[in-house]
Amino acid sequence: MLAGPGPPDEVDWVSRADDELGLILACCHPALDPAVRVPLTLRTVCGLATAEIAAAFLVPEPTMAQRLVRAKRKIRDAGIPLRVPPPAELPDRIGGVLRVVYLAFTAGHKPSSGDALVRGDLCAQAIRLARALAALLPDDAEVAGLLALLLLTDARRDARVSDTGDLVLLADQDRSRWDQAKIAEGEAVLGRAMRRGPPGPYQLQAAISACHSCAASAADTDWREIAALYGALLRFEPTPVVAANRAAAVAMAEGPAAGLALLDQVSADRRLARWPQLHIARAELLGRLGRAADAVSAYRTALDLAPAAPERDFINRRIEELSR
């Protein structure tokens, strides 16, 4: 539970803090292992299932379950206070909090399991938390970048699902269904953040999303700029997932062969073996290169990883098309 009012200089900060946001800040205590702060908060505050969290971190579910058990034991044995921290402690926790909000949104925007293509409750919760963070830290450019990213991405939510409930890829979406108010707000927030100095990772991701939002059609998308932004993002987050996204952007800018070469380099990272989206991306590029049999094989590998139901339906449709 949240602590009561502190000294006079803390009361205003506490009174403006969202309850859930306060709990997230508490769970991101610096005494906890950095590798478990985010998963613990996603489990205890956002209510994500252990399987969903494991999928987000590309680790087996039993491994994640053990990490969560150890973290809870650490809180109990060390007597870590679950309370809203004073302002002086925020710098040590804000990075973890941003990560929590981002991953909560990702879990809602792209569920790793279940029948729903989008979990609107998680998306809305993440945006609300990002707004609370922005109100709490109005001069933090990365907080603003995160809010902009979530707004620009969520603006496309309705267009990601067809009237029959099927997944619609970005290139095939009806852009008239995009939420123009969210796009305008997201671009305005991003513009203010970028004027505060060199961009950080959330601002870069928001800029990537803005490239999509500003394009009148899929054909007008500036994929070279998107590939360059992913290259800049790699300097902050040298992860295989970011590298895979850059490879997909290069494929759109320079052709499927160039993208596939990069994607095959990334796929050597064993952490991505459990990521269905990698195999789906490879399958799409192989299909564009006319390698139908290889594309079907990649799609089947993705199916073996038990993706969410809408993605399974999408994969099966692709396999059927390639097998004709």
Walk me through the structure.
With 324 residues, the protein is mainly α. It has a domain at 216-324: Serine Threonine Protein Phosphatase 5, Tetratricopeptide repeat. 65% of the residues lie in helices and 0% in strands. It is built from 16 helices and no strands. The chain has helices at 8-16, 19-27, 34-44, 50-56, 61-78, 94-109, 120-136, 141-154, 180-194, 201-214, 223-236, 240-254, 256-266, 276-288, 292-304, 309-322. The chain is globular. The chain starts with 7 loop residues before the first helix and ends with a helix. Residues 1-18 have low confidence and may be disordered.
Layout of strands and helices, then pairs:
Elements: H1 8-16, H2 19-27, H3 34-44, H4 50-56, H5 61-78, H6 94-109, H7 120-136, H8 141-154, H9 180-194, H10 201-214, H11 223-236, H12 240-254, H13 256-266, H14 276-288, H15 292-304, H16 309-322
Write a brief caption for the model.
By secondary structure, the chain is mainly α. 65% of the residues lie in helices and 0% in strands.
The computed structural class is: mainly alpha
Helix content: 55-70%
Shape: globular
- CATH architecture descriptor text of the domain at 216-324: Alpha Horseshoe
> What is the CA-based Rg, rounded?
20 Å
Q: Number of DSSP strands? A: 0
Main beta sheet strand tally, sense and closure: none
Strand content: under 5%
Order of helices and strands: HHHHHHHHHHHHHHHH
Q: What fold name goes in the CATH topology slot of the domain at 216-324?
A: Serine Threonine Protein Phosphatase 5, Tetratricopeptide repeat
> What is the highest CATH level, the class of the domain at 216-324?
Mainly Alpha
Number of helices: 16
Q: Could you report the average pLDDT, rounded to the nearest whole number?
A: 85
CATH superfamily of the domain at 216-324: Tetratricopeptide repeat domain
List low-pLDDT spans. 1-18
Q: Separation of termini?
A: 59 Å
